[in-house]
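User: Hand in any protein.

Assistant:
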Amino acid sequence: MLIIIAVMSVAATRSALATTPEAIDDPTVDPAPCLASAAQPEEADRTIALCGRLLASRKIERDDRIKALVARGDALARSGQVDRALVDYDDALRLDPKQPDVLNARGEAWRLKGDRPKALLDFSAALKLQPDHAAARANHKSLAMELERLGAQKAVDGKPSFDCRRARRAVEKAICADRDLANLDREINARFVRIAQDAKLTPKELQSLKRAQDGFLARRNSAFGRPGYDLRAEMKARLQQLTGSDGN
């Protein structure tokens, strides 16, 4: 019985020692492999593994922890794991909120997720800390232009090239009543106008372009409502013709 008790006592002691912080944390942990791997963009998986091992220790210094979080966050973002990258960026910014590089990186991650407002806030915060931050400035400018463009598109979404209040023909009323048809009509007209304004067009080419557009509209107006006529298909076909003429 004494032998059994002694064995149990030794086992319990070993178990206790195995769960102490000293046993869990490696006092000799070295941040160098994690940071060196982070300098190689193609080694995202290796960086994630090395930095993860480093971050599992409570022995690393605060600055090294921040660097490891950012390095792993960047690698996660590159590998498409945006949600996990955001967690690392958040943790790094909690340790030190005044990091323009990290704010810019988190902004890029938010942009990848499609959350443009949060991305813009991070780019702005980065620029507030460092007005000459080139990457944040470029990101802020391109995102602001994107939001402006989206706002303009939203303003005309579902609106055709003509005033629906003055629509008289049945086909025009049908276009006004259908968001997709209205957008198709507006895009067809915009393409036509852009091509017609091209200074490289010869008078003969311009005349041919106008004749084709007039022919499309005449067929649309007269054929709409007849059996077998597909307005949506005809409009898509016309847009495709104009897209080809536009070289895009």
Q: What stands out?
A: Residues 134-156 form the longest helix (23 residues).
